[in-house]
Amino acid sequence: MREKSILTDVGSMTLPHRLRYMFEQVRGYELIGSRNHPADFNLVRAEYINTRVRVLALLFSILTPLWIPVDYFILPESSFGMMAAARLLFSLSLLALWVKASYVFSLRHARFRLLMLMVIPALFHLSAQFILGEHLSDARLASYTFLPFLIITIHCVFPLTLREGSLLALITIFTLSLDELIQRQMFTLASLNNLWLLAVIMSIAIWAQLSQLHMQLKLFEQATTDALTGLLTRRAFMSLAESELSRSERYNRTLTMALLDLDHFKVINDTYGHQAGDKVLVTFSRQLKDVLRATDIIGRYGGEEFIIVLPETRLDEAEQVIQRVLDTCRETPVQYGNHSIRLTASAGLGEVLVDVQTSILYIDEALYQAKDSGRDRIIKVAGERKLLTE
Ligand SMILES: Nc1nc2c(ncn2[C@@H]2O[C@H](COP(=O)(O)OP(=O)(O)OP(=O)(O)O)[C@@H](O)[C@H]2O)c(=O)[nH]1
């Protein structure tokens, strides 16, 4: 990110630190697990996975019974009835999955449905193994032998983390191998050969999953993050702030919001140049991230204006936090070449009561009062939205 290129001196790092830095740059940890993914990204991914699960479930529930007439001609009479019943059961299970997956609440839901999408065909494969037995060596029944490879290939369609992809792969391969495990044929040459092939295709599927996830994360980041400061864009901020407001209303908790603006920022640009101004913005954003909690939502509202939502924070508590931000800003000059740039910031602060957009109007008024009354200070909006001067 641009922020890091300005502030990080990679050349002076030791080798382990440099490797770790590179790992962080490509966001390797974001591909391993979803712990570091933003909550709204998880929801976007959940919807993405769920939609694919639905489409595939519907597709296979329609296609599977269509093969019954073909089975009528190629299967031995003794197996046909059982196989047709298995196909219908498989088709109905997938249809039920399609109906159940009509909406998604969380990534956990989507993951479970994905697991079902893999386990149901694997169980169908198992039933085919038991019903058809030695007939499977008949070349006309090749489609039954190919089913495990088809199931594994479907894994490619989903953007999954390494942990999710590997777990899903292990469960699928385990289910597919159950009949060989039960019949103690796991270690025959033919079984090992099959297993090896499944593992190779699965590795490629996991690679495809990680590539999709990586691309989605990048697109999501570009759409929601300000390129210079790494903070949320105004649109992404508004969307998160609205959901935070719903949550605070549901649990009857206080939600506080602050607008901060760097004082006389134009003078910094005019005196030291635009790049110095950029460095000041990056440094101030980093100070915000350092002082505020990880759960606070920070956005770049405009050029040198920043917006913050502090969940579950009373007005007096929020005031202390924002005061700490202003103190840090005043006491930490930004080094730019030989210059030591001193700066201050002003803030408007208030509770979010009705909706985010209206609260911003009131808090913006407070910010302008802070500017008018001398800068480097906070003005609070009271609960009844009367301006209280500090
Ligand atoms: N370097 C840099 N400057 C920016 C960026 N976005 C906006 N600006 C500049 O920020 C300055 C804002 O100036 P003003 O709105 O007059 O505010 P101010 O000088 O901070 O004055 P007060 O807010 O009244 O204290 C303008 O000169 C913009 O060009 C940016 O991304 N980088």
Automatic annotation (TrEMBL):
The chain crosses the membrane at residues 55-74, 80-99, 111-132, 144-174, 186-208. Its cofactor is Mg(2+). It comes from the Bacteria. Residues 253-383 form the GGDEF domain. GO terms for molecular function: diguanylate cyclase activity. InterPro entries: Diguanylate_Cyclase (IPR050469), GGDEF_dom (IPR000160), Nucleotide_cyclase (IPR029787), Rev_trsase/Diguanyl_cyclase (IPR043128). The keyword Ribosomal protein does not apply. Keywords: Membrane, Transmembrane, Transmembrane helix. This is diguanylate cyclase. Its EC number is 2.7.7.65. It catalyses: 2 GTP = 3',3'-c-di-GMP + 2 diphosphate. It holds the Pfam family GGDEF.
